[in-house]
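lol ok so funny story. i was supposed to be doing the assay writeup but got distracted and ended up predicting the structure for this chain instead. priorities right. anyway since i did it might as well share w the group, maybe its usefull for someone
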Amino acid sequence: MEAEKVHCPSPDGDLLGIVSGLGQILVMTHDWDLLYENALEEDQPDGGVDVREPTLSSTNTSMSSVSWRGDGKYFVTLSQLSNCSSLQKRLRVWERESGALHATSDSKAFMGAVLEWMPSGAKIAAVYDRRAENECPEIVFYERNGLVRSSFRINAPVDATVELLKWNCSSDLLASVVRCDKYDTVKVWFFSNNHWYLKQEIRYPRQDGVRFMWDPIKPLELICWTLEGQITVYNFSWITAVTDNSIALVVDESKILVTPLSLSLMPPPLHLFSLKFPSAVRDVASYFKNSKNFVAAFLSDGGFCVVELPQSDTWEELEGKEIHVEACISETVFGTLAHLTWLDSHLLLAVSHYGFTHSNYISQRLLGEDGRHGFYLQEIEIACLEDHVPGSVTSSGWHAKVSYINYLEQEIIGIAPNPAKKCSAFVQFDGGKISEYTSALGLAIIGGTTENEVTSFSSSCPWMSVVLVGNSGPLKHLLFGLDDIGRLHFGGKILCNNCSSFSFYSNLVDQVITHLILATKQDFLLIVDIDDILHGEVESKYENFVHTGNRRKEENMNFIHIWERGAKIIGVLHGDDAAVIIQTTRGNLECIYPRKLVLASIVNALIQVRFRDALLMVRRHRIDFNIIVDHCGWQAFLRLASEFVKQAEVVQAQDFRGFDANNKVYSVLLAIRKALEEQVPKSPARELCILTTLARSDPPALEEALKRIKGIRELELLGSNDPGRISYPSAEEALKHLLWLSDSEAVFEAALGLYDLHLAAIVALNSQRDPKEFLPYLQELECMPRLIMRYNIDLRLHRFENALKHIISAGDAYYSDCMNLLQKNPQLFPLGLQLITDPAKRMQVLEAWGDHLSDKKCFEDAATTYLCCSSLEKALKAYRACGHWSGVLTVAGLLKLEKDAVMQLAHELCEELQALGKPGEAAKIALEYCGDVNGGISLLISARDWEEALRVAFKYMQEDLISDVNNASLEGANALIGEYEEGLEKVGKYLTRYLAVRQRRLLLAAKLQLEDRPVNDLEDDTASEASSNFSGMSAYTTGTTRVGSAASVSSSVTSKARDSRRQRNRGKIRPGSPGEEIALVEHLKGMCLTDGAKHELRSLLISLLMLGEEDIARKLQRVAESFQLSQIAAVKLAEDTISTDIINDQDILWSTTYRKQELIHKI
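and the output, tada:
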């Protein structure tokens, strides 16, 4: 039976790797079945089995070791070479399934049998023995292929040995036991940005023989035990050491790396300077307030150090330096300190524990006769025995003593200073309970007041912060806590369930917090207003911090996607910087400028009238410049324009070009321009600013800008040595600036508009246009007479009024060009009549204007224009084209036409008016000009002008004419009676249908309400299902009345046209449609009598009375009155019921009564 040297089970527990005393590796199952057996070294004698007695090292009982990869597919062995008596060893990587050798490393001097494969499988950790080189041990990392990836030295004494190496379950922390002459240490390293940081060093007495293990599921829990049976569990947590003024402190063994992130975003291990302490740093606290900069550190050897730093604006002198810090002088023993927190510039608060083997024994003098082991809350008072020199570092001469001590019966999770109260802090106990601590008074009673109960957390929160807020009132503190599972606690409730890190931002000088910034586990950065938290609007505005892709753009300002998974918030740049600093898992630092914070900082600067700072932020972050004007309203900005110019004087001129064109730009830029001219001394920069305001005006004042440039150019051409000349930029610079701000084509046209061809050529050249494009045109203009040149330029620029003035001023030789311009631009005719004084030419202009109006179908205006120029023939045609028969006959009189010609013209007009549907006007022509009495009366009857027809018939006292009027009146009355009766029936049907639909809808709505269903569930087809009693009513058909005479036919046609017109206006009513109820009401309203119908009814009734037809007149009046009253009553009932959703029995009663009256009327 071979002696076992070392064994190691696989991660899944199915296999067991055993190294025998004969140098064999055996892999067995959990049933002790041997899968395979291999020799660790290939050159072993006698067929691979070394039968010699193994030689054990004095430092380790086992010279071989086994470690499995996290997934169990490979395992690695470390064994000594069989033919070598030195410490030369070799790593071998084996495959799980076959036992085949996968890779072998080079032989090296390894220390002991320390071997650990990272659970993630990326690295294999081992230790090099460097004692032969008089150097400390070195931890080396191998890859699966047996090649070295990296290494680092542990900075221990040369004779130190590494006894144990262990990775935590998340593979981000590496712990080891390092044995020295006087003590053993447990060291914990962290890898980031290609650098290994020693984050913790815990010292034990050498005789304790300390060992440890990581918790298999909690990556930050370390379990240590000693030979005496003492077990200590360490629960680590990552604390971001970034101060309120964005100074980062990074612990690296015995150093603290200091970097002001507001000056330079240097990722660790890069730093501005470092603080060197006598031993490794275990806890650190910083105090950067009120022009005081202190850093306190507790060391692994039990020492306590304090250093005072100068103001951060003088830190450039410390770049690259390493400042050595001495331990404080103290007459008392502090114990092992944790949760080190500053209460004031001379007072600290910490948790100290005594009585453990890794702690200093408590002073009996301090505790008295009742001294006992355990945890204590103690105040540490510090004082400097040396005089502090301003601008220098004070790293020695500090004295510390314990001024107050309080025994703790519960475990403390964290301590946070109270910013609202001096020398006060909030202490969090296990379970999340919060108690307030005040210097020299001790702890307040937990749960003693309502306030304490509210501020407690529902679970332990390793990350706790206390901030000041001011909600338009006195300042108060708020407590926030983040637990291990990502729940952010506030005010006794859970604010967010998926938070990974959080911080706070303040845009105010007094550091009053305005925004909460948090990162979620889904890698989203959220900006939360403190006011929303105080007012309880977080859930409604941020939807439990779960981002959805269908949000609108303005809502996405609250959600920023972090592009690298697992990044954490480490700090914030407050005030105008408005930045969030995150650290990726690789260790790099990234700076994000959330748009919401940037806008808040800009608004804050505008409220404080810091225009220059706001302008710089707008430019830096590419924000719309209109925010500067629109924040308080552009009218208010006009009053502050002088202050804006005063502050923006040092800013570049092109800052003003960001304002977009809209209706307020002219006023704003005019105010800025006036302030520039009044307050800012003359300089090239001022002139460029003025040009900018002109170019960005709405519309752009390019001509005025070019006039200023032209003035500068004239000064240059004069060669004047005037000292004021240096107050202006060169003409070329000013022109290029204008071209940069504006469209080059618009500037070229503006130069042409000044009629300065030389300036236009300079503009074209500076805009880099091809000379072939503009030189021929400019040369052609230069050869023209002055007025003609301006005329052509105005035509190019579409300035037609100026072109007309110039062409008229050029003389009669260009009269044809003037007429062409007027005909192409008819809007110029009024101006042309004002400018042209020659009567003959005025007549030509008027006739051309009339021709244009005729072409545009404005015949009446054209006829008037023709009359002005005595063109009577064209005036006659124009009047006839628009149907103005009186104008036609009047112009015929002016033309002095013969009687036969006038008679013929009258007959033609009469026929045309009949075709146009104007029988009344045709009747006047027939009676007055044609002498056709019979035709005139027929036309009056067709026009339904009964009184006029009867008057003409009695005028000529012809019985046949009177009889025709009598018969037509009777037929028209009968037709109207039929229409009114039909309308009365329709009113009843429409109203009955309306009441039925309304009743059905309300009943269904009430039924749904009783079933607790929303009314929206009411389907359209269900709502329109009325009672079957109404299915036979054809409420949506239009009836007609047929009579025999020509007059009644005309009446019927008119009635049809009127009904169809009403139907089109009301729209179609579809039974069962959602809008049927409203459409029925509108249909009832449209059935009222129009003014034309009332006039026709009145005329017909008077005619019937004159003709002695009193009975038919009375019947017509009664039917018309009944229809009118019924329609008015139906509309009033519908309007009264449509505004309420209550079923009224009066509605049903009215409908039943109305139907009974309808039956009686029919009988």
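The first strand starts at residue 4 and ends at 9. The chain has a mean pLDDT of 81.
back to the writeup now i swear
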